[in-house]
Records
---
Amino acid sequence: MKVLVIGGVAAGTKTAAKLKREDRSAEVTILTKGKEISYAGCGLPYYVGGVIEDKSALIVNTPESFSRLTGVAVQTGVEVVSVDRENKTVKAVRVESGEESVFGYDKLVIASGASPFVPPCKGTDLEGVYVMRTPKDAISLRGAVEEGKIRRAVVVGGGFIGLEVAENLALKGVKVSVIDFARTILPGFLDEELAFYTENVMLDNGINVATGVALEEIIGDGRVEKVKTSKRAMKADACILAMGIRPNTGYLENTGIEMFKGTVLVDEHMRTNDPAIYAVGDCAMVKNRLTGKPQWSPMGSTANIAGRGAAMNLAGHEISYPGVLGTGVAKLPGICIGRTGLGESQAKDAGHDVVTVLTVVDDKAHYYPGASSFIIKLIADKSTRKILGAQVLGKGAVDKVMDIAVTGISLGMTVDQLSAMDFSYAPPFSTAIHPMAQTANVLLNKMDGALDSFTPAEYAAGAAESYTILDAAPASTIPGARHIDLTAVEGPLPDYPQDAKLLLVCTKGKRAYLLQNRLKFYGYTNTKVLEGGTFFTSFEEDEE
Amino acid sequence: MKVLVIGGVAAGTKTAAKLKREDRSAEVTILTKGKEISYAGCGLPYYVGGVIEDKSALIVNTPESFSRLTGVAVQTGVEVVSVDRENKTVKAVRVESGEESVFGYDKLVIASGASPFVPPCKGTDLEGVYVMRTPKDAISLRGAVEEGKIRRAVVVGGGFIGLEVAENLALKGVKVSVIDFARTILPGFLDEELAFYTENVMLDNGINVATGVALEEIIGDGRVEKVKTSKRAMKADACILAMGIRPNTGYLENTGIEMFKGTVLVDEHMRTNDPAIYAVGDCAMVKNRLTGKPQWSPMGSTANIAGRGAAMNLAGHEISYPGVLGTGVAKLPGICIGRTGLGESQAKDAGHDVVTVLTVVDDKAHYYPGASSFIIKLIADKSTRKILGAQVLGKGAVDKVMDIAVTGISLGMTVDQLSAMDFSYAPPFSTAIHPMAQTANVLLNKMDGALDSFTPAEYAAGAAESYTILDAAPASTIPGARHIDLTAVEGPLPDYPQDAKLLLVCTKGKRAYLLQNRLKFYGYTNTKVLEGGTFFTSFEEDEE
């Protein structure tokens, strides 16, 4: 069996290596446009910041070492320009010489990846304009920073890569602004209220974040001097374009291979509509595990799972890839974030009867050094009681919270099941009631009627406008609000009738819940707890 | 409804507080022998080491603050001495005055906890003998250390508490020995080969660990001078008894309440054989979620889940507690450990057709600062392909690995499902192929015949005695073994016939697997890979 693999970073090398292990008799050849294969794309921002000191750490394997280890033939500097399905050949051009060659295949694996989107505006060719896709990009950006050429930088794009680059430039002492055209950073990844919270933390940590702002032009004489946006022109010595990526699939036009929004459409065996052709990695479309709908997941993690699956299927085993949950985590300035599954509006769009909860919980025993808080949002279906999505912010192990959610959501976990898991606990790691179980308990209280609450998003949207705020914190914290000592409540409140609309607010939500509990007992019917309390929602500024 | 709760630490306070929230009209009273309630028992070793500086951090709530917050009445210094089920009363004695009282109940909750086991040997009453159960124990041990009274300490008992105390005494500069009667530390928690590995790391970190050694006598004139064991007498200024705990259930004798090994037997609603009596926490027996058999789980985490469940059931909701997995994590000198589900022999005893795997995998991107390794052991059932148990060692986030396993095992996850999870990945947190997915992949290779291997335990038991060791590491590492450059293997090995019994060993197992893959292709039928390689199994000393 002669197998050609177009592309040699994560998905291509994984598929090729695994296939050789499954069937050493297969003749497997990787054709790749670049000079390097198998580099650590996700590590590039950290090289910029010097967190990864040495650039050799970015290269996982050279073409030679990979080839020796796996038995896969690798041709670098070879760009595939067309595919002839009828004759089972591809035409390729040597990048340096322009020389054309034709390669035959029995099976073809499309793993040609994606390229950074460069917008059609003026100035993108100036010195000081960067993208972040290959080791070369990271090396040249860090080089310019270390030569003192970059004091101010504008990062265009508030997605994971943009924010990671921003953090790492800031680590190097660069004054960084991040702009994004969307209403929030991480659009589609974090629910809006969590994205706003994250923006505030980043501002507190010295990153200037401007959303709803479009890039119009990069201005300069030879090199970047200003970045002109839809709002104003910003002084800058560098402009990093992190506006997303586009699949490298232009050469597949008119081949009849089924495409979807520029990506190659595959079934759960990573097979295209041509049974001799597979596609994996950033150029391929996978599906959402929950909705079954196409979802693009240009991530190293997906590339590896899909690559393994493609190799197994090529070798004659039937392996199904169940799809992604859209999981992501990132370390950002001052805060780590994570998300998986469906966001609140995605869940509604998918037809679920949605209930959500937001909690602020300890991330380890409160008395253990380094203890901090998680902000956890769970999204669930009221009727099936299954968890659909989870998002988390915090200084600590957001990846743990996400991986629990990933495992649970993948297996159809209900809120009730989450509540009673025998999670690991010792003070250096967690709390006696696990942060996720704690959150599940609050959601259970809400679903079962023991807790009546507004989410921070409902509050921000004005749901509490006709409510009187009662401050249930141990000491008064909300300017202008009546403070109530919940421990003294032993009957109806003198100044409020039992049908009064009362919004109960404390620091995180727990005392407000205890107050609501008492007030209900004394006949109150219209109280609401503000989830996440003043920890999440500020009552000092920006109050609506 | 009049509810009496006997005991006021984790399970008692949780049950009482939650019940009041569910039904504020219930009259709930806690009777507790001690002066404090609701203290952080799991934090005590960390107070000893000064990791937790201030003793006030150990107290979660005073009886007064708890009572004000929850509406639960609390009587401290009151020891229950008998239960009269017929008349629904308990008899109690005030500890200070000896005065007797009788309390009536509609429902009774037994949450009287457990006490440290003190062996019936000489010298346990000497100054310098400690247990570790209440804040007072920790405060007096740290006090003695800080007064310079303790230079050498012997900890008797290699369970979680004993090892945590050992780590914290060592932090304070005390020379520490840990002895245990069992063959290994953490007997029943870690499988033997992992326990041995942990012992070696602790030795490297300055803790003297002696197993198979029994305490015979504590010797001294007024205060501890020597600890006499079945092997030898050890000089010591202090002896910490961490030999386990015994349920405080003596007062229940002859009540007809069904007991099991000293604990109170309950159903999944936390109810005893008397429908008016519940039991929760360290004095109660819960069940193993996988085997359905009784399992004692005297842990703060279990206390909280069971307490919540008991309260919900008392308030008329039917909540089932599905039981525990025996999850545990701990930070020990030089290494963190975790376990959940069935150990290898437990799984065999439960009738499973068991397959296990041990891997050594990166805990985050290898190039990210602080990256280290996990040693992960998975225990699965060959026919159902379900994961039954997991154990982990490492410097990093062992709690994450465990919590994934807990969630998966609780929901019946197969190895195949674990392999394809969309886990969270970014370089500061994890690897592109998640450590758990990586381990699942190796186990899949083993289950599906792509990998033939010996586990470290099989190797230690002599399974490879008739095998020739081939060293597959990049450079020769095993004294006396033939080194093979796997990249040069393009046909049968000149010196070994194709039916030769060959044990392939590299640093972690990956290159040995690649070598096996090639050798199989060239007709070799008797090769075995050593799982975990030389990272886990030492070929320099103690070789069998």
Note: Chain B has four domains: 2-114+246-314, 129-243, 334-447, 453-536.
---
Amino acid sequence: MELWYTEEQTGGLRFSCQVKQALATVRTPYQHLAVLDTETFGPMLVLDGMVMTTMADEFIYHEMIAHPALFTHPSPERVAVIGGGDGGAIREVLKHPQVKKAVLAEIDPEVIHYSRRFLPEIAGALDDPRVEIHIGDGFAFLQSCKGEFDVVLVDSTEPVGAAAALFSREFYETVFSALKADGLVVAQSESPFFNKEILAGVYRDLGALFPWVGTYLASIPTYPGGLWSFTLAAKGSPPLDRQRLPQAGFTTKYYTPELHRSAFVLPGFVQELLDQ
Amino acid sequence: MELWYTEEQTGGLRFSCQVKQALATVRTPYQHLAVLDTETFGPMLVLDGMVMTTMADEFIYHEMIAHPALFTHPSPERVAVIGGGDGGAIREVLKHPQVKKAVLAEIDPEVIHYSRRFLPEIAGALDDPRVEIHIGDGFAFLQSCKGEFDVVLVDSTEPVGAAAALFSREFYETVFSALKADGLVVAQSESPFFNKEILAGVYRDLGALFPWVGTYLASIPTYPGGLWSFTLAAKGSPPLDRQRLPQAGFTTKYYTPELHRSAFVLPGFVQELLDQ
């Protein structure tokens, strides 16, 4: 018998992975959650029929949502991750010795539970004493924070269901207020091939609030089209002019100090989308 | 009825596209050839069960195999494309007014025939008077050329069947001889995710012959993993120090003068693969 996971990534396009074993398939109060052990990518977390992360390529997404902002802020002491219950973004955040407190605001505790159980290499960092976990709505959580964070990472799912609010103008205003005066926010902003309007919307809406906004890209083979966008916005001075370098012993597999800048150099069609 | 094209991109990983119409499916003396009109990407050329190009994303591969070398060479007058019977690389080459002669060496005339018929936006440039088409083995063709070309583009399929020879040391020696003293070669060098050994081999073998070698990347959604590598080698001075800029009216959708350099900035795991 062969077992395959198939995802309709966009109309008329499917991505299929052979599955060695379905480790978990449950319906939580918020979404359908599966952990599948795949032939090609190892254990894979799937939420509402969309690949969130896999053991083989998780380093790309998690390094790239965290390090461009963390290596830009002069002293990232307090960091919030909205969503991201698998713990991967938190793990990368904690690599920065400046970080004193890393808050995870995840609405669905089952994501954390199953990640800890089946993806310990990703979720293990959630046990670090610097981590504070808030189970609940990330939007509501941030509303209670004023000028509190140096960096906020919006590690959301697609803008459907509970995550839709995390793509709204109101949410970005809340993030703005929750940041300190020189704070930075990064939001995952979807595929530049298949979610052009979402990406353009995130860029436009963050740019309307923050004095500086920039989109950067990373190649993630298990995401639609294999290319993903992140959008960084800054309350203070332009981020690309103040890049810090990793200290000795800081290890990454995708992010490099050279890539920090070049990831912001966009293909023509992506730049054009943002310039509209 | 729904018709789907499914490709096993690597073990345990499949890519499927919904097909509106199978425009052609033939067996040529060299390979199986199909042109499928797909829902998501429009007309798609498939050789031996591997997507070669689609109307929706062909601009990426064709711009990126051509322009980094063409905008590096001070005066690219004579250019050869080995393989690439769809004509897309030739079309990009001909955008450079310096080009006086563009030779296409394609082993399978059916690729040219079906591309002209069903992909005229790609193949149309083959009718340009500066183009010379050689039907036959590209390796043998280049052996007859000594110090003749400014730029050679190796636009091959995967290293199986007829294309396997285009990934050999002997072939690269032939390219070296066919180039002028300051000539450049670019070879498509497969996926950095799924064909690590092929990429490392191309980089190593070109680097053993040419004084300068560098790998760059482009995001191509219909190729395995969505990320593709190209390896450029130079007989003369280092290419990245002598980038020319596009003249007014030169249009591209992916390549930009900024991307010319940043495409060579590799993710850590790719750089590490090449450094081994």
Note: The CA atoms of residues 91 and 125 of chain B lie 5 Å apart.
